[in-house]
Each structure stands twice: as structure tokens, then as C-alpha cells.
Amino acid sequence: xxxxxxxxxxxxxxxxxxxxxxxxxxxxxxxxxxxxxxxxxxxxxxxxxxxxxxxxxxxxxxxxxxxxxxxxxxxxxxxxxxxxxxxxxxxxxxxxxxxxxxxxxxxxxxxxxxxxxxxxxxxxxxxxxxxxxxxxxxxxxxxxxxxxxxxxxxxxxxxxxxxxxxxxxxxxxxxxxxxxxxxxxxxxxxxxxxxxxxxxxxxxxxxxxxxxxxxxxxxxxxxxxxxxxxxxxxxxxxxxxxxxxxxxxxxxxxxxxxxxxxxxxxxxxxxxxxxxxxxxxxxxxxxxxxxxxxxxxxxxxxxxxxxxxxxxxxxxxxxxxxxxxxxxxxxxxxxxxxxxxxxxxxxxxxxxxxxxxxxxxxxxxxxxxxxx
Length: 372
Fold this sequence. Notes:
The protein is α/β, with parallel strands linked by helices. It has two domains: 2-118 and 305-370, 3-Layer(aba) Sandwich (Rossmann fold); 130-298, 3-Layer(aba) Sandwich (Rossmann fold). Helices cover 34% and strands 16% of the residues. The protein is built from 13 helices and 15 strands. Strands 3-2-1-4-5-6-14-15 form an eight-stranded mixed sheet, with helices on both faces. It is globular, with a radius of gyration of 21 Å. The two termini are 18 Å apart.
């Protein structure tokens, strides 16, 4: 199979869809890989390293996109729409539940798109979302600590406090992968941490791990309000696979929060769990509403690209090899990968995305059979 690796063009996105090691694994199995010059430079991978791994270096994005399968990190942006076509498999993060425009473009192009974030095991785990959720969760506590500083518009609070002065109060909405990793770093800072979730077993696990170093509460409208109003930093880490995140913090709640408090909405890729949240970029990461600083960068792990690229490839490479070796048959045989199929030959094939966008839906196997 011919595989393309274009350079990411989203604002301050420095990750790469393939490492030289992944390219080497593909070329050793007889596949061709075209890498756009500079595609790995943001993650400190040089063109020479890709060449040594067996890749062909091409100068233009159009050449990298002219492949049987294109491997990326982030969803295509408008400048890349012209490269989409029905004969290509696109394997990347898509987050379509809050992006009707891109969904329409993918459907009209006929491309076969597979979303990392909805590849799912029978037990509910999301193996290709997990590493980036770990990174984003840990970063959420870091950036929250930064934006609590007065020079960044925050309350002027040190996360750890010092003897005689209390630490920051941190509230984390969601105890999944992102939330639990945010808790790990926030506890490490020495903050006073409370984690809310609807899943008692997740809360019990955190309680067993931290043994009183954090508080856990069942999430409902009352407990969320009570916790958020006393918070210096709120981290939104809610996830419904493939679907739009629910609003847990309403716009009218901001007026009752502490002035200069910070919200880091990790859920922004799926629409955000805060009513006043809107996607921001690393170039312009924050804005303020009613005195509350909002950090809503939609590609947080892109700020630590070396770590993120290596972590992502550790998870995606087995699926990339499977697709390269078997083509669309890999989707028919691998149920986890099949759940990642989002569009195919003009059909929307993910139920949660279809429900979020009020569009028609076709079962993945039915869509694959219709085009066979």
C-alpha cells in the first residue's frame, strides 16, 4: 500500500502521524511511505531520519495526500479539503460531533475516514484516544497553574500554597483517563483536589489510590455547582465517545464563581462541557467571560509534540499496519477498528456523531458491503 504523511497545518500543531520507527515498520513489510518534507520537524524528526527508515521525501502536501492511506494527527482544515477523495483512507483524529462543516465535506468527498478517538474495545476503552487524554489531562493541571498567575489574568494563587497559606482548590469534572491524569498532577502540585464523576467505581479507584489526598463526589447538578463556586481551577474532562460533551457548567454559573478562577476545558474537541467554551489555539489560548479565564485549546498535546507523537504512534501503529496489510478488510475483521469508521463513500457510519449532528446513519458493515 502507498501511505502518505503530510505535514500538519493546524495552528501550532507540531505532532506527526508517523515516527521514523513507524515508517520503518511499514517499509519492512513492503509498503511505500511518502513523507512531506518537514512533517516531523516539530517533533524533532528530520527528513534524513525518515529517509533512513525507507520513506520517500516529497516537497508538497498534494504529493503526500496522493496515497491509498493518509495518516495524520488532526482533522483536515479548509486548505486540505481539496485533497480528499473516495479512493483514500484517512486515519486521524476527527472529533466530528461538534463539526458539521467537516462532516459534510468528508461525506461529499466520499473518503473513508477512520477516527482515532472512536476506535473502541468491547470493555469501552478507547486505545487511540487514551495516550492523548493522558497528555492533555496532565497538561491541564500545568496550564491551569500557569493561568492562575495574576500576570495571566488569574487569581494570583500558587497551586501548592506554602506553610500558613492554603493551596489552590482544584475541581475536576470527570474521572476518566484525562480527569485521573489531571488529578495525578494536581495532587502532585499539592493542590486541594476534588474529582466528580457519575461512575462510582472510577471514584472508588481514585480514592483507593490517593488515600485521602483528594476528595471524590458523585456528579450531579447540585454537587457540581457547590464545588465549582469554591474552585480556583476547574478542569473539564468529560467524554461521551463520539458524541458532543454535555454542558456541566452553564453560562449563568460564572457570575457565582471566584473572580480570576480558571477553567481548562479538555472536552473542547467534543464541543466542550462549559456553555461559554469555544475552541482556542496555542497562539491565542485564553479569553475571559464574567471574570473567569477560559483555556480551551483544541489540540493541547500539540504543545509537547515529541512526547505526544511517540505516545500516539505506540498506540496507532498496530492499526496502521493492519490497514496497510488488509485494506478495508481490516475494518470488517477488527470490531474495535470498525467502531472508528466514521464516513465511507458518502455514508456517515458512526451513530453518536449522526445523533449529535442530526444526520442519517448507516451501519459500518452495511456501508462497506454497499461499496464492495
